[in-house]
Design brief:
single chain, about 120 residues, mainly alpha, ion transport, sodium
Length: about 120
Amino acid sequence: MTVLAAFLVLVGGAAGAPLRYVIDGYVKTAAGKSFPWGTLAVNMLGAAFLGALHGADTGTNVEALLGTGLCGALTTFSTFELDTVHLIQDGSYAKAAINAAGSLLLGFAFFLAFYTLLSDLT
C-alpha cells in the first residue's frame, strides 16, 4: 500500500461515513423503524457500487478511494448484526431471519448484477 492509497482511503471514508448517516436517517424517516431499512439500504447501495467498481476494473487508486474508503464507510456489517440482534431481543424472529438472509442474499445479488453489468460494458 502506498501513502497515496492510504490518503485516498481516508478521503473516501470521510465522505462515506456521513453519507451513511444521512441515507440511514432519511430511509428511517420515510420507511419507519420497525425494520432496519436504513441499514439495508446503505449496504445494498454499497454492494451495488462496489460491484460496479470491480466490474469496470477501475484500478488501484480509484478502488482505494471509492471501494475501500467510500464503500467501506458507507456500508456497515456491525450495524447489520446489531439490528438483527435487536430484532431477536424484541421477539421479532421472522424479521430477524428476513434481515439476516435477505441482507446477505440481496447484497450478493446487487454486487453480482452491477459487476456483470459494468464488466459487460467495458
